[in-house]
Design goal:
By secondary structure, the protein is α+β, with helices and mostly antiparallel strands. The protein has a single domain, classed as OB fold (Dihydrolipoamide Acetyltransferase, E2P) (Beta Barrel). The chain is 16% helix and 34% strand. The chain is built from two helices and five strands, in the order βββαββα. The protein has a five-stranded antiparallel sheet with strand order 3-2-1-4-5. It is globular and about 55 Å long.
Amino acid sequence: MRMNLDLKNQKPESSGFDDLVPEGDYVAAFCKADLITTKAGGTGLKLSLKIVQGDFEGKQISDFLNIKNANPKAEQISLGRLRRICDLTIGRPVLADTDELMGKRVCVKVEKETRDGYEHNKIKSYNDLIDVVERTPSAYINTPSPIVSSRANPWD
């Protein structure tokens, strides 16, 4: 069937990823991790997280980490961020498989940024769940069940 449709002025349906959420702190769980080859031939890790509490429960946000990159600074920043994620979720600096992250909860600090003329959510930082309870309004963290630290040992 031949179609001659001009959809330039049609807003695309949302994929559920990066539907904008207000800036703030959210409890989110890792739900997907994809290792990809970048256009420049490097290696990137695309992490997807689902907000699991509050008014935006179910919304997904994503982060991209440059695991192998020609720019050493970009690689260093991303590997440092991955180290932080590992410390918060699995309690050790060695990640054997991204499946180890699946279902693990963290607090993400979300900001908005404009890229290529479009506004997106950006994960500014990853934080321990205990830290966020002390400084976050209950609008972002509804706690019907107790929040437990993601650290293996609470005293670490």
